[in-house]
Amino acid sequence: MVHELKSDSYGFQAVFAGDKTQELRCNDRDYHVMDWVILKETKWSGDEMKAGWPLVYTGRAIAALVTHILYGPMYSLPAGWVILSLKVLYRTTALESRA
């Protein structure tokens, strides 16, 4: 399964640089080990978009394989949330694109 996910610039940059290898996500997509995650960087943060800023992608994306999943409730992680361990396999940069 392939999951396309929006990612704020701050967290996206850390994954892109190789400094961050996990994603905290609501488990609303039934994630599984060996699923693909496509992180698409957004120009505006989630809070800014909630305030009315438009959804605009920067064009940068990361393709990663889910190698491990920690399911809540465990280690104070709430039920319904997961921590996805990712192995980044592909990074791309491109011109800004509108959703």
Judged by helices, strands and strand pairing, the structural class is: mainly beta
Number of helices: 2
What's the structural domain tally?
Answer: 1
Query: How many runs of DSSP E, i.e. beta strands?
Result: 6
How many angstroms does the end-to-end distance come to? 22 Å
Estimate the strand proportion: over 45%
**Which second-level CATH architecture applies?**
Roll
- Shape estimate: globular
- Under the CATH scheme, which class? Mainly Beta
The amount of helix comes to 10-25%
**What name goes with the CATH superfamily?**
Hypothetical protein
Could you describe the largest sheet, including whether it forms a barrel?
6 strands, mixed
- The CATH topology assignment is Archaeosine Trna-guanine Transglycosylase, Chain: A, domain 4
Q: Which radius of gyration do the C-alpha atoms yield?
A: 14 Å
Q: What is the residue-averaged pLDDT? A: 94
Low-confidence stretches: none
Task: Write the H/E string, N to C.
Answer: EHEEHEEE
Give a quick summary of the entry:
The chain is mainly beta. The protein has two helices and six strands, in the order E-H-E-E-H-E-E-E.
Please tell me about this protein's structure.
The radius of gyration is 14 Å and the shape is globular. Strands 1, 2, 3, 4, 5 and 6 form a six-stranded mixed beta sheet that branches. The protein is 14% helix and 48% strand. It is mostly beta strands and 99 residues long. The protein is built from two helices and six strands.
